[in-house]
Amino acid sequence: MAHELRAYQARAIDLVRHSFATGHRRPLLQIATGSGKTLIATHIIERALTKGKKVAFLVDRIQLIQQACDALDRAGLDHGVIQGKHERSDRTKPVQVISIQTLARRNPWEYELGIIDEAHCLHQAHLKMLRAWPTVPIIGLSATPWAVGMGQHFDDLIVPITIGELVAQGYLVDAQVYAPSAPDMKGAKTVAGDFSGKDVDARVRKPELIGSILSHWQALANNKRTLVMASNVAHSMELAAMFSAVGIPARHIDADTDSEDRRRIIADFRAGKVLVLCSVGVLTTGFDAPEAEVLILARPTKSRILHVQQVGRVLRPSPDSGKGSHALILDHAGNFNRLGWHYDQPEDGLDMGDKAAQTKKSESTERLPRTCPKCHLVHDSRSPECPSCGYKAVTVKPPEVRKGKLTLLERRNVLESDREKRDFYGMLRYIGAERGYSDGWASHAYKSRYGDFPTEKVAPIPASNVVRSYAKSLGIRYAKGARKYYGR
Fold first, then answer.
1. Distance of alpha carbon 154 from its chain centroid, rounded?
2. Where are the beta strands (DSSP E) in 3-149?
3. Which residue spans within 46-136 are E strands per DSSP?
C-alpha cells in the first residue's frame, strides 16, 4: 500500500481522473521537484492494478531506474525492469520500469497505461511509442513542462499546486538569492535554445570569476552543504579542486563517475563529510538530498527548464539538518536576472511549437528581478529598496499626481510598529493552527505582507477580523492563480 497522500497530491490524482473522464488521453501533470511526484505515480499505478491493467513507467535515464524501483517497493507494488540485463528483469510482472534507452532498441511490452517521468525530456523513442499506441492513456510527469512542442504530444496541462503555494504551506523552503558576480554573456552564440557550450566555457573559467565563487561562499555560506552546478566537467573539477585546496571537503561527480563511487560520494555529502559537491548534469534531475543548504549556479543558461530544475535541488525541507526555512542560492551565472524567479508560473499552457508565438514570447517585457549593487541580494524589482541592506537606488519614482494633489506611496511596513508586526505574526500562527497548516505558512504569509520573514517566533494569539480577511485574501489569490489550470 502506497503512503498516505497530502491534500494537493490527492487533488492531483483526482484532476488526472477528471481529465480522462472528460475525453483527454494524454494529460501532463506539472508538480514541483520535492513535492512527491513519484508518490503520486505509485498511487495512480496502484489504482490501475486494482482494475487489472498493465502499467509501464518510463524514465529518461538509467540512474532513475533505482529511484523508481525504490518507490514501488515502498508502496509494495511488485514490478519488473526492462533495461539491459537488469537483475529485476521479469516480463510477467504487471508493472514494468523501462529506460528510454532500452525502449529505443526494442518493442518492450504491450501495456494499458503509460507514465512518462520527466516528460519535458521527450526522446524519439517516446514519440514513436506515442504514435504506436494512440488509444493507450499516457500520463506525463514534469516539474517544468515548457519544452517546445509539448502541446503536440499532450492534450491537457494539470497544475494542482504551484511552487509558491508549496512554500507558503511549508512543504518546500523559500530561497534567498545573491548574485555577487556573473560572466558577460553578451554576444554568446545560441545552440538548440541555450548558450553555446564553447562560449560558456570561455567566459566562466576566468580566475576572477572562479575566485569570486570561493570568496563569496566563505562569506555567506561557510560550512554549509553546497551543490555547485558547473558548465562542463573540466569546470566542475576545477571548482572542486579550488575548494579542496583551502581545506574544504569537496568532490566532483559526472555521468561517467562509477555508480558505486557516486553513491558513496552522495552519501558522504548527505552525512556532512563532503561539504561541496560539484557536478554538471547529473544533479539536475532525479537527485534527492534535502540536506543541501546552498546552491551555487556557475552555469549560465537561457533555458527556464534547466534553471528551475537546478533551483529545485535545494528547496526540499530538512528540519534535522539545520537548514531552516530558507535555502541560500549564490548565482554566479546571472540566471535569475536573465530568467526570473523559479516560482513564477508561465501562463501560456503547453507550447504548441508555434514559431511566431515563440518569437512573441521571447520579445515580451516580463519584469525580472534585480540585484542590489551593495549586498548583491537578488530581489523583486518592484521593491523600492533592498529588503536586506536597505539600499535605495539613486533614481526615485516621482510622486503620484491626482487632481493637483501630491500623494507619496510609502511601504506599509515602514508605517507599522514592531509591536503591530509581532501581533500580526501571532495572529497568523493562530489561524494556521486552526487550519492545520505547518508553521511555515504563517512565516510566508507574514513575508507576503512585509517583504521579509519574521525575526522572532511569537506565541499564537486570537486573530482579529482584519488579519482573518488578509489570510482569506491570500487563499483567494492562490485559488485564482490555480483556477486557470484546474479549469474550475
1. 21
2. 27-30, 55-59, 80-82, 95-99, 113-116, 138-142
3. 55-59, 80-82, 95-99, 113-116
Predicted local distance difference test score (pLDDT) of residue 294? 96
Q: Of the candidates 367, 187, 398, 210, which has an alpha carbon nearest to the alpha carbon of residue 296?
A: 210
The reported pLDDT for the residue numbered 437 is 85
Q: What does DSSP assign to residue 434?
A: H
- In single-letter form, the type of residue at position 150 comes to M
By the 8 A CB rule, do 44 and 13 touch?
Answer: yes
pLDDT score at 347: 63
The residue assigned the cell 524589482 is 381
DSSP track, 258-311: -HHHHHHHHHHHHHTS-SEEEESSTTTSS---TT--EEEE-S--S-HHHHHHHH
pLDDT at site 399? 37
Alpha carbon distance 100, 113 (integer Å): 16
pLDDT of residue 338: 93
β-pair partners for 145:
none
Paired residues of 227 in beta bridges = 277, 295
Cα–Cα distance for residue pair 164/488, rounded to 1 Å: 20
CB 231 within 8 A of CB 300: yes
Find the DSSP H helices in 284-417.
304-311, 335-339, 355-362, 412-415
* Residue 385 per-residue DSSP state: B
Contacts by 240-245, CB closer than 8 A, 24 or more apart: 240/276, 240/278, 242/210, 242/213, 242/214, 243/214, 243/217, 243/275, 243/276, 243/278
Q: So what's the pLDDT on residue 332?
A: 94
Residue 353 burial (10 A CB sphere; 0-12, 13-18, 19+)? middle
Handedness of CA 113, 117, 122, 124 (dihedral sign): negative
Sign of CA dihedral 6, 12, 13, 14: positive
Alpha helices in 138-184 (DSSP H): 163-168
In sequence order, which residues have a C-beta less than 8 Å from that of residue 438 and are 6 or more positions away?
Answer: 169, 170, 171, 432
SS3 373: coil
What was the pLDDT predicted at 404? Answer: 32
- Would you say 424 and 469 are in contact if contact means Cβ atoms under 8 Å apart? no
Pairing of β 27-30 and β 138-142: parallel
Q: Is residue 169 within 8 Å of residue 438, measured between CB atoms? A: yes
Low-confidence stretches of the chain (pLDDT beneath 50): 359-360, 362-365, 395-416, 480-488
Q: Which pLDDT does position 401 carry in this prediction?
A: 34
Residues 6+ apart with CB under 8 A from 265: 251, 253, 257, 274, 277
Can you give the pLDDT at residue 100?
Answer: 84
Query: Which amino acid, 379?
Result: H
User: What pLDDT score was predicted for residue 144?
Assistant: 94
